[in-house]
Write a structure and sequence with these properties.
This protein is an alpha+beta fold. It has a single domain, classed as L,D-transpeptidase catalytic domain-like. 11% of the residues lie in helices and 25% in strands. The protein has an 11-stranded mixed sheet with strand order 1-4-3-2-11-6-7-8-10-5-9, covered by helices on one side. The longest helix has 10 residues. The N terminus is likely disordered.
């Protein structure tokens, strides 16, 4: 298959699209606070390591069905999500949330698989997320430097060496164009620390049944409809805290 990225166990670093300004390599040790022994572990392409079976179907409230309806007017139409295949606690919802972080802060909890966007009056918008297996090992503070709709993705040289079929998406060839098979999905939020790219992303994924699991090779993934919602609420320059 020439245009589909297959799930593989990958350890390479993200390579950014051509519109990524001032991208600088940054090791986990510099980005992570208190995470020992993982500086040599590199991020991969935000892909799933292995296929995941969808859970049994259950009844779904109508409000949830609306939240995860098809989005035919997107640049690349997005199909509806069968929300019954995602545990209800991981559905997008506004919740009470006690925190000292200011409004607009993104908080990712790698133990609960929740992403909270802090709102006013003690509330937050909560999203379920999927994480990389190494996601449990990193934490820290950074900034969401900028956002992209339907971003490009460029596999790193290390990944191409292991998977020569990805050469067609190399930096020299312009990367993988946006689309439904692009590992970054419909939206991506780019995480920087001290002006340097951490190589971590918050991004969309069509594999909604992977939410609440540690299955990808890196980054923080959301349901496509959720990352679009988050994209519209988060401002560039917002703080992000990973705990």
């Amino acid at each position: 298959m020439t245009n589909t990225i297959t799930p593989r166990d990958m350890r390479g670093l993200h390579r950014l699209s051509d519109d990524t300004p001032n991208a600088l390599p940054l090791s986990r040790r510099r980005f992570l606070t208190g995470a020992a022994g993982i500086a040599s572990v590199a991020l991969a392409g935000c892909q799933t390591d292995s296929p995941i079976a969808a859970p049994p179907v259950a009844a779904t409230p109508s409000a949830t069905v609306t939240a995860y309806r098809a989005l035919p007017n997107e640049r690349f139409p997005i199909p509806a999500v069968d929300a019954a295949k995602v545990p209800a606690r991981f559905h997008r919802q506004q919740v009470r949330f006690a925190t000292r972080e200011p409004v607009g802060t993104v908080i990712v909890n790698t133990k609960t698989f929740f992403l909270h966007l802090v709102q006013e009056d003690g509330m937050a918008m909560r999203y379920g997320v999927g994480l990389g297996r190494a996601g449990f090992e990193w934490s820290g503070r950074a900034k969401i430097a900028y956002k992209r709709q339907w971003p490009k993705w460029t596999p790193p040289d290390e990944m191409i060496q292991r998977q020569p079929e990805l050469e067609q998406w190399s930096a020299a060839n312009g990367g993988m164009p946006p689309g439904p098979t692009n590992p970054l999905g419909a939206r991506a939020l780019y995480i920087f620390q001290n002006g340097e790219d951490t190589l971590y992303r918050i991004h969309g994924s069509p594999e909604y049944w992977s939410i609440g699991k540690a299955v990808s090779s890196g980054c923080v993934r959301l349901i496509q409809q959720d990352v679009i919602d988050l994209y519209g609420r988060v401002t560039s320059g917002a703080s992000i805290v990973v705990v």
